[in-house]
Structures are given as C-alpha cells and as structure tokens.
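Because discrete structure vocabularies remain unfamiliar, we reproduce here a specimen of the format, pairing a chain with its fold in token form:
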Amino acid sequence: MSVASALFFESAADIFRRVHREIKPRTPVPPVSVEYKAFANADSHVRLQHGHIQVRLTDLLAVAPAPVTEALAHILLGKLYRLAASAQHEQRYKLYLNRKDIRQAIDDIRRTRGRKHHLPPKGEVHDLERIFDEVNEAHFGGMMARPDLGWSHIRSRTRLGHFDPSHGMIIISRIFDDPRAPRLALEYVMFHEMLHLHYPVSHSGTRRCVHSREFKLHEKQFPGFEDAKKLLRKMW
C-alpha cells in the first residue's frame, strides 16, 4: 500500500465514527468498537452500552468495499438513533447482498454454521414423507426429488410451512399434525412449499422475487385451491 493510499484507508471503526459525526453532528462520538463475527446468517448488530457503541458485523463483510460498510453504518446507526437511512444507502447495501457470489456465500454459511431445529417427519397423526410422495405423484408426476422434511417444534399459526434452500428442507407447522386439521389444508401447504423447490427465488438488482408469476399460476392449479384457502382461514 502506498503512503497516499494509506492516508485514505479507513478501518470499519473509522467509518462508523465518521458516519456518526455525519448523522449526529452535535453529539460527541462515543468509543466505537467493530467486530466481525462468524454468524450463521448475513446478520449485523449495533448497541449502545455504557456509553460505548458496539458493532458486530457478519464476517461476510470483512472484505466488503468501504462504500458498502459505510452504507451499513448509516443503516445500523440510523436504527440505533431511530433515524431513517437514505434510500441510496439501503439500495447500495441490498445490491451488495444480492450479488450472486454473496448470495452463494450466505447459503454456504447457513448450511455449514446454521442448524435446523425440527421434529422428525413421522408425526403423531401424519407422516410428511407420505404426504410429500402423494402430492409429488399427483401434481409433479413423481419427478420431484424428496428434500429433507420435518415438523416444526412450535405449533405455529402464522408460519404454516417454509422451504429452506440452504438446507434443502421443508418444515411444516405442527399445527397440522392433528386429527382435527383438514387433510386438504395440509396437502395444499405441502404443495405450496414444493413449488418453492420448483420455482427458486430470483434476484434482480435489489429485488428478490419469492412468488413469481409462474409460481402463482401453478399454485392456482391445485385442485380445491379456493377450498384449501378457506379452510386455512377457518382454522386460524
């Protein structure tokens, strides 16, 4: 590194101190510490404790360009002081996270560092592997490879199911492992999550499309689509 470039080099802590002066020009900058942590996701956190700003960034950002770190500093310090970050900073940070190489890195750390807490697919009433196979045969010609399956620990009424692409797993809310739960509703939720396997999330710039037009059209082909939706509304 040349002397000239060294003069302009800023550490992550330097960047956070500079951004603090920008957004709180009349407030003395408290001590700031920045650590890169091996989180199981692209998470970053900030807190003010005993007059000291503590920043913990995902290690995915350890080699991020300075403008990206600056954008995140605006976002995190804005949250700390309840100030909205500009759309420019939000967009810059989202664009970086949506880069193909960064998305791949996020998937890798979720898979290697994260753990999926779930119950086995064979429940007290229903066997998710059997449900998957029946839905697969009826709606996908039996051609879809079975991912890992499991029941949630919590009988969630808000998150009925989800597909985790990092772990290649479908988790279904244990609220359905009940003789009172309509079978049609369970099959529809399984079908919905299987569509996420069939139509992966797409990214364009800062946009992340989870339910594409093709996804929605295919979903409506489920026999009893409207009846299943009504059953779900009645259940909750």
Summary: The first helix runs from residue 3 to 8. The domain at 128-235 is CATH 3.30.2010.10 (Zincin-like). The beta strands are 32-37, 45-49, 52-58, 148-151, 161-164, 169-172, 202-204, 207-209.
